[in-house]
Amino acid sequence: MLHALRSTHSTRTIVGLAAALMIGLASPVSAQQASGTALAKVLVLGTGGTIAGQANARAGNAYDSGKVSAANLIAAIPGIDKLAQISAEQISSIGSQDMNDKVWFDLVKRIRAAIDNKEVDGIVITHGTDTMEETAFFLQNVLDTDMPVVLVGSMRPSTAIGADGPANLYDAMRVASAPESRGRGVLVVLNDTIHGARWVQKTNTTSVQTFRSPDAGPVGYVDTGSLRFLAAAPAKGAKLKLPDAPPLPRVDIIYSHANMDAAEVEDAVKRGAKGIVLAGVGDGNSSKGAIDALAAAAKQGVVVVRSTRVGSGYVNRNVEVEDDKLGFAVSLDLNPQKARVLLELLIANGITDPKSVQQAFAQP
Ligand code: ASP
């Protein structure tokens, strides 16, 4: 049934379909319905991921990402039509390990159109978990809206026993349709927890409790019966311009390790990297050979940002590395993959001098 209903790049109003699939299933009456208020309109944009995954016979736990359309994922969730008037479109059907500038630009185009035409009250994006934090942070830095934009995925494919996708999607719908979610930046919802785009990270390869915000904590909690935001002020992002078409400027991440020489940095420069993010050891450190090569790259006009492979904590300026003298910026609380996204956008906007780059990284 799910396969037969699969749609690509098409809009589908879900409510009727969902209702048809849910005959006989009890669903709670929403507060909005009880009070007679119109349901919020939410657009679901499917991109793929495990949430849309289907089992593959090659191994007991094997599956292929991005096989089920967002429309069919919604249609299979009892009671979700009581939360919002839902429509769904497919932007891509990929595992998020293949996420790329084209899909990002397509997402922005569609979301901006929905905002400009006042089509909806909220957006849900179904997405693989591998690079969800990068897409969330990218959107946060280019979308200028108070409308809730919520990314959701799952750790188990839709065909798994105990699939977490339906509950996550239900939660995401509750967040995206709620007025109290407005003005909180781009959000990530998994496992009953709401995270802010700046802080969220995937931290476990397989557990359903994989997303955490090590430096800030979650921004809220949601479940089938409640939605609670904590007091923390949301980060808003830099609000940078997007070029007319992809690709964004090339920024490479160099992973630091023991016994490291200059080769990786020099190779990145040879490949034409306009920026380099160091996934440094500790407080964004690296070997003398690598730091010297980064300093040489910076002298040639490559923008260098020191981040860390550690997974939490801020990278500080001028502690063991002479950032002022060498012309480096530091990523502060941004992990290497998010530092890369921000640096791509900054370079695309012509912001390349270390001082301005540093200021942009400090912008919450
Ligand atoms: N590889 C998958 C993806 O990111 C993993 C997931 O969605 O959990 O698309």
Q: Nutshell version of this structure?
A:
The protein has 364 residues and is an alpha/beta fold. It has helices spanning 15-21, 31-34, 70-75, 101-116, 132-142, 165-176, 263-271, 288-299, 323-326, 336-348, 354-362, and strands at residues 12-13, 40-48, 54-55, 63-64, 84-94, 122-126, 149-152, 186-190, 193-196, 201-202, 211-212, 220-222, 227-229, 251-255, 275-280, 303-308, 329-330.
Describe this structure in words.
The protein has 364 residues and is an alpha/beta fold. It folds into 2 domains: 2-229, L-asparaginase, N-terminal domain (Rossmann fold, 3-Layer(aba) Sandwich); 251-362, Rossmann fold (3-Layer(aba) Sandwich), CATH 3.40.50. 28% of the residues lie in helices and 20% in strands. The protein contains 11 helices and 17 strands. The protein has helices spanning 15-21, 31-34, 70-75, 101-116, 132-142, 165-176, 263-271, 288-299, 323-326, 336-348, 354-362; strands spanning 12-13, 40-48, 54-55, 63-64, 84-94, 122-126, 149-152, 186-190, 193-196, 201-202, 211-212, 220-222, 227-229, 251-255, 275-280, 303-308, 329-330. The strands form 4 sheets. Strands 1-5-2-6-7-8-9-12-13 form a 9-stranded mixed beta sheet, sandwiched between helices. Strands 14-15-16-17 form a 4-stranded parallel beta sheet, with helices on both faces. Helix 7 links the parallel strand 14 and strand 15. Helix 7 (263-271) runs parallel beside helix 8 (288-299). The protein is globular, with a radius of gyration of 21 Å. The N and C termini lie far apart (45 Å). It binds aspartic acid. Residues 49-50, 65, 95-97, 128-130, 153, 155 line the site of aspartic acid (ASP). The site of aspartic acid (ASP) has 11 residues, from loops.
